[in-house]
Amino acid sequence: MADFRTDPGFLDRAVTIHRADCEALARTSGPSPAETPPSPDLDEAVAAYVLAARRAYDGMRRQIGHLAGLLILAEAGGREVLAVAALSDAREKWDAIEAVLETARTPPRLDHHRESLRLAHHLIGTALSAFDQIGLRGKGAGPAISAQLNGAYRILQGIAEPRAGMTMVDFSHACCSCAQHANRR
Amino acid sequence: MADYSIWVLEYSYVKDYHKSGVLYGAHNQGYVKLPYCYVLIKGNGHTAMVDVGYNDKDYGKHLADKFGVENWHSPKEVLAGVGVSPEEVDTVFVTHSHFDHFGNVEAFPNAHFYIQEREISKNVWAMALPDRMRWMMTAVDPGDILRGVGLAQQKRLTMVDGSLEDALPGIDLHAAVDSHTYGSMWVTVRNDGKKQSSDTWVLAGDLVYVFENVEGSGSAVDVDTLYVPVGLAAGSQTNLVLATEEMMKQTGYEARRVIPIHEERLKDTFPCRITEDGLRISEICLADGESSKV
């Protein structure tokens, strides 16, 4: 198994879902680990933070899409199919993300990253509260809610880090045969 | 007599896309070029698009580095190849919400958009599921959903529930539920304007990627051809096959009238040219009085 300290590409490959026989799991890029000195930029503290931050990032990414979709349905006259616990579910997930952000141990040089995550989380929470007030069928608060969600989206987009699996679009599962481009390089 | 001209416009491509992505079960059969395209429909006083591509500034570099997507060009550059500007587009039919189809709505400021309601509602449902089920929102950019909010607030978004006849005169919309995506849609152009048209074109979105999805080899089961669904289905391959049958029925089972926009070999079936930017324009049909752009 590859070591993330000596093979930074391992993190990239590890955050995708692979078939059991995928070459990427066994593959190491570039020189063998024995030939590569440990990277000072990718120590265990950073890796631990990245794993926690990625959970929060991915959760917020999907919360933005979730709430934006509810807004579209509210604005454009969707049916009632989504009313079932949609907002309470969203609140539960928001609380879970908050717990992740609270407990993540952050290396000092990544403080700004966590602050950005917290700000995005706050904006999503504000949007959720507004949704709580107007309900799924409410009108009028849509522009304010979408502004909060757009703000959160821009923050997350600004701190995207593809090598750590933090991207606004999950391309990694978009194909049934993975690592095709990586294998060509 | 034809009411509409139809062009398939390439805006980017992947040189080596694994074949199993476009054809179910084609494992270890190598790679194919996968063009990224949208469709322009012009006639009857309308300029319409089927899908809008994606905006390179958001994740173009990532796509290029990780997936080998190359040679992206903007709608302004691409549509110029057929003498149209994005501002002239008045209608957009979004076949599904994947980033490469729904990812550039802001480039069409005067267009009214159509999408299946189920494509939004089921993605909302999927995005609320636990992390371990995140596969179910593959390739969906929450930013595109957010931009959809803007369209809805501007009253520029119509959500379609199933089929819609004459979204524009002679142009119908049809749903393929739980197939490639939860609420995929195809666009049918009855180009003679008749209800029982003998000049029908189907713009299949990602319900059909390549010709083999409609006319796959049937030698293994002793038939000439059979439907082989695309590789990626958030719903089911069964629903893809059922949708293919409906599309084929609409064209009188004339396979060349079902247009797969990711098919590189459109060039073997329709007149085409390569632009100065290295992108292909395929001319599917011309309206009466329209001049060829290839």
Automatic annotation (TrEMBL), chain A:
<protein>
    <submittedName>
        <fullName>Uncharacterized protein</fullName>
    </submittedName>
</protein>
From TrEMBL, chain B:
<keyword id="KW-0862">Zinc</keyword>
<comment type="similarity">
    <text>Belongs to the metallo-beta-lactamase superfamily.</text>
</comment>
<dbReference type="GO" id="GO:0046872">
    <property type="term" value="F:metal ion binding"/>
</dbReference>
<dbReference type="InterPro" id="IPR036866">
    <property type="entry name" value="RibonucZ/Hydroxyglut_hydro"/>
</dbReference>
<dbReference type="Pfam" id="PF00753">
    <property type="entry name" value="Lactamase_B"/>
</dbReference>
<keyword id="KW-0378">Hydrolase</keyword>
<dbReference type="InterPro" id="IPR001279">
    <property type="entry name" value="Metallo-B-lactamas"/>
</dbReference>
<feature type="domain" description="Metallo-beta-lactamase">
    <location>
        <begin position="34"/>
        <end position="262"/>
    </location>
</feature>
<protein>
    <submittedName>
        <fullName>N-acyl homoserine lactonase family protein</fullName>
    </submittedName>
</protein>
<keyword id="KW-0479">Metal-binding</keyword>
<dbReference type="GO" id="GO:0016787">
    <property type="term" value="F:hydrolase activity"/>
</dbReference>
<dbReference type="InterPro" id="IPR051013">
    <property type="entry name" value="MBL_superfamily_lactonases"/>
</dbReference>
